[in-house]
Amino acid sequence: MTAPERPTARAHREITAVLRQCDLAIDATAGNGHDTLFLAKLVGETGTVIAFDVQEQAITSTRERLASANLLDRVTLVHGSHATLSDHAKPATASAVMFNLGYLPGADHAIITQTEETLQALDASLIVLKPGGILTIVCYPGHDGGDKESAAVVAWAENHHAEIFRREDTLRPAPFLVLVRSMDILSTPRRPNVDTPQ
């Protein structure tokens, strides 16, 4: 029996079908740099990747991974929130935007992506994606705070003609993929700002 495709693998497969050399790609959650490196390989010498993370440890890890592969020169690392994504890329210029939510593996699991910032970043992604571009979001409902964030992403996705790929045959909530193709969302209004209690 063939094992189900992991959501991260599906995200990579979908992006590989879209992203080309000389394109702009965005890794909204750099983490340990695996997705950033994947994108950097795809965009080639003439392409650009912008990678975000709020944790200095993640930026350092990503920089080291890219340097080891001699690909650091095609990546801009932003030590800051992905909610500022549209401040770093012009509208309709990115071919792919990736999110891998949750916590940084190997670091403090109490430090996780924040729901409201994630929703702001998703809205910003729709601005920077160009026609034919793709947005992938891997959600992790199985950790503290991850269930709330995952539910919020699904609610957001329902307003943006997203595809959701999840497993229903697991005892614990399994990671899942949300995918938005930009031709589906070009005419969709942006989510209104929502104030959340502190």
UniProtKB/TrEMBL annotation:
Keywords: Methyltransferase, Transferase
Pfam families linked: rRNA_methylase
Enzyme class: transferase
Xref: CDD domains: AdoMet_MTases
GO-annotated biological processes: methylation
Cell inner membrane recorded as keyword: no
EC assignment: 2.1.1.-
Molecular function terms, GO-annotated: methyltransferase activity
Name the record gives this protein: Class I SAM-dependent methyltransferase
Organism: Luteolibacter soli
Classification lineage: Bacteria, Pseudomonadati, Verrucomicrobiota, Verrucomicrobiia, Verrucomicrobiales
